[in-house]
Description:
The chain has three domains: 1-28 and 429-467; 29-34 and 302-360 and 367-418, no CATH class; 87-298, von Willebrand factor, type A domain (Rossmann fold). By secondary structure, the chain is α+β, with helices and mostly antiparallel strands. The longest helix has 33 residues, at 434-466. The strands form four sheets. Strands 7-6-5-8-9-10 form a six-stranded mixed β-sheet, sandwiched between helices. A five-stranded antiparallel β-sheet has the order 2-3-4-15-12. A five-stranded antiparallel β-sheet has the order 13-14-11-17-18, with no helix packed on it. The chain has helices at residues 2-26, 109-127, 166-174, 185-195, 224-240, 255-262, 281-298, 313-318, 413-418, 434-466, and strands spanning 30-36, 42-43, 50-59, 64-72, 87-94, 131-138, 156-163, 202-209, 244-250, 272-276, 302-310, 319-323, 331-332, 343-351, 356-365, 377-379, 383-389, 395-400, 405-410.
Amino acid sequence: MIREKFATALALILIIGMLFNVSYATEIKTKLDVVKQSAETKYLDNNQGYISKSIVDSDPEKGEVTIEVKLSNSKNSSNQTITKEEYEIFLVIDDSASMNTMISTGGTRKEALYESSINLIDSLLTNYNNIKIGVIKFASKAEYSDTEGNDTINDAEKMCELSSDKDIVKNAINTQSNLGRGTNLEAGLLLANQSFSLNCKNKIIIILTDGAPTNAVNIKEHNNQEIYDATKNKLIDIDNKGIKIISMLTEIEDEKVAEYIFGTSDNPTVGRYYYIADSDIQKVITENIAKDVNQIISNPTMSNIKIVDYFPSDITENFEFSYVNKPNLGTLQEDGINTTNNTITWTIDELKEKEEAVIKYKLKLKDMGNANLLNKVVSTNQKIVLTYKDSNEKEYEVVLSSSPEIKLSEVKQNEENNNSEDSEDNSKSKRKLPDTGEYAFYLGVVSLLAIFIMLIGKKLKNMRDIK
Length: 467
């Protein structure tokens, strides 16, 4: 009898204790802390701009954070780790007899071309401190060409080495050559290709000519088709080496030959191509070609942009996702997180110089009493992968591997007192949390044992009563 009463009392005490601890556990409050505000800012090649990800707003009690992803095409001159790449440019200029033709605007074709070229050189060397310019002239003396030299490839002559000195380069334009009356563009291209620095990665050739070629390198007998083929193939060969080519052809008599070699303005054989009248020489060289070079050097426009944001399972399983608003540029491929690969994808057709593309989204914790997340530092995402093309159609891939970080943590007593005047309390746990829940579990086990002992005692008593 005494054992039965003792077991019953013990069971009641332990059950009450367990309920007390459970009640205590429900009073524990939690909040969502920002552990790391921002990911690293990733600067793009050639000082193109940067991509960043950061927490721009948070509500600890509600378990919410607002995240901003930004892609900027603004150069960062204060970033000392970024260096400007060097560019080398050769003007390859026709110096054949036809260049002395008088034109409608006054003076000769050569004079108009030379004056415009000087203005181009002056503009480029004034605006950029990371370029060097050289001048090569070409014509043709012989019936055919079969030798190659260093400064002169038979029908081509280097009027000045690559230089950033405006006076040297401009004087080279006006320097007279002794190359003959014919046209051997291939010789000029070959000499230019050999004259670039070996370690320079960014090379540009600007071709300024007024006629179909009458000669080519290593042509033993004069054959127009072979000459045209050799010239065209040399253009393609140089382009395949990554050298940018800009061509201007003025007043050629046979348009079919021009199209065979250079293509058309809409569909050029290589690079950019202008087929113009003499009256447009100045405009095309000082405006169109200048703009082409500026685009190559400064890379102002990004295109074919794709931003893929990858999320970890801690986020996809425990947080609600929603966009704060639509991106200011581009299109989102999903309404929310793609559950197939846990990503969101953002595409932008074009981002011009000094433009910024921004998207914001919100992560809200589903359960403020989530024991699995308590005191665990969670990355808001795994990585961002950015792909894009620059103005030269060169493709890039950039990976932003770091991420803002958050943590569900317990609100300490002093913090709770400071926030006691808050009208709404969403941070209070709705169920047991690990610290106190463990005690409740052990108490529950002991209680069950006590009940078991009580039942055994009652069973024994009944057996005695039967006897």
